[in-house]
């Protein structure tokens, strides 16, 4: 039988299938919006629909233009012809050009950049950097191995609980980034597949983001929209009790049902040689006297050969030379360690005067403890990376970083050939041979995450009490309302810098600017949906399609629909589009709008059906060797379980 869902595995099966998945997502979401253009919902007499403030809304040219514009934005978000932050900048520009229909002027279009939610998120990135640089998370991670030993259930439970709890107070991206190398090392040292631990780490961190207002940028954005629409922003611990319930549910799920659904793609007993299947792709050759390569530089040789290969090391008279090798001349008798396929190696020897050393066999020690300060490391390409959607050749990766790229892992698939031509995607893992200066440069960059830690980073552990106190102060002032959370967060940033918890040069690197621009660009879109009556109109159509479900059923439907939308676009985008619709739908039913705002907020942050539901899901994609179906199989039962828990929890705590 044809495996239809295999089409969705766009990261495993290549660009064609990636395009298929994206086109399917475009068609699905666009169809839903086009359905809203069918008149009738707002005029239909539904017994459960009250006299909400938007009841008189009718389909007009303004709404048609807005829905068409939203479809265009969705298509751009899904297909990503340009970077997401650039798409976000286009949104307010387009709204101003469409001013006769959207009512958005330049002041409203730029309101997202001065919005308190945007500034608070920017400040929280820097506060999270201070906690990360202190080494607190690393210390906690190191203690996990001593607590859990080799017990898989304990490991999953402790990792999920700790990552979720930490993500309630600092951004989940650095939490997952720090935990990845710790978890992979723990898995191998206790003979457990890292595939069993990394999805729980990622999913739990997003659940933990729902513990506090500052747990995720989405919460701050939803709070701002809620304040504007119904004069009800979130306080710091507004939904902590529900967030705790969600996190506990997730942890219990992963140590019971979820654990049985988690794959074990990467075998724990495998070392780097076996894991990356390097035996077939490394060989040593000896340069013969009559070889035309004698006297040529390595760079010249590689350019002229036009073969898919990398020269990793030259051994000459007992001395070894490793990257950078481009300017190194080749001499008679040199022993060259080459990464290539056997077919490529045969072509090279047939025409270049090289002799294959048949007794050479790559060993684990040679890879894991390379000579002269070289280190073998894995790095992950995160979402929003400069290297994403570019090939290694485009960014001149090997020469820029004095490194040899040995293999690329995309999910469960490995690539050893034509590496320079591979277009990198978020979630890809690169196996690199690097020197100490290169490793330090890679650790400083936000464009890659060093996933397998070969040495400990120098943390400012003497700053731990101070960094924790600053973050606690920010939270305390935000809770008491002495000053707005945005002011306390900015004050916290200033104190972090003055006290040396964060260096001034680290401030801008700490911020995920893609998220900042995304928030700033999306905020005016929500304003336009309200001004034109588009949100009210869509709410009417939503209630018509709901078929007269009771309010609790519609609440659950909003949670599920928002999580579904978030699985194909950003969680911030789904909040901007869905919160106004949820508010208007609640008012139409005569229900309290705040519970519906919460349902959308939780749905946007707990999307678990695809690896694109949240950027941290992509961060574990390569290190765990996952494919699309792993996320779907593990995430579907969890998504349905949380739909019940969140809906019933909202009903119990806040009523409808």
Automatic annotation (TrEMBL):
Pfam family, one: TrkA_C
Main location: membrane
Membrane topology type: Multi-pass membrane protein
SUPFAM superfamilies listed in its UniProt record: TrkA C-terminal domain-like
InterPro entries: Cit_transptr-like_dom, DASS-Related_Transporters, RCK_C, RCK_C_sf
GO cellular component, one term: plasma membrane
GO MF annotation list: monoatomic cation transmembrane transporter activity
GO terms of biological process kind: potassium ion transport
Keywords recorded for this protein, A-Z: Membrane, Repeat, Transmembrane, Transmembrane helix, Transport
Residue ranges the record marks as coiled coil: none
Ranges that cross the membrane: 20-41, 61-79, 86-104, 197-219, 239-257, 466-498, 510-530, 542-562, 594-611, 631-654
Start and end residues of each RCK C-terminal domain: 270-354, 364-448
Location within or outside the cell: Membrane
Protein name: Di-and tricarboxylate transporter
Organism: Halarsenatibacter silvermanii
